[in-house]
Design brief:
By secondary structure, the chain is mostly beta strands. The chain contains 1 helix and 10 strands; from the N terminus they run ββββββαββββ.
Length: 117
Amino acid sequence: MTGYLTTHVLDTARGRPVKGLGIDLYQILDGERHLVGNAVTNDDGRTDEHILPAARFELGGYELVFHAGPYLTATDQRIEGPHFLSDIPIRFTMSEAVHYHVPLLLSPFGYSTYRGS
């Protein structure tokens, strides 16, 4: 089996998928971030293509950065002042050539993630 990476973003405050949220994917090599690609979530809160397709998959450390600030502004989920959450980095390691799914559950003042399926 060849590995690949997917993601999904859900707005837990509004109870719906997050549309239009920008995501950057970095590979971590020798402690340095290297941009691998980026995407924007669709109507279902997913990216149209795998964020890291099988053809580009490599084992190792990665970081997804979810750009939540513009989404929270667009959906009027901002209290006075700047956002509590703006860019949300999630670092993880892929140690097997399998499907990894790293979703984000988002609200204006918190988030969570897990290794999905």
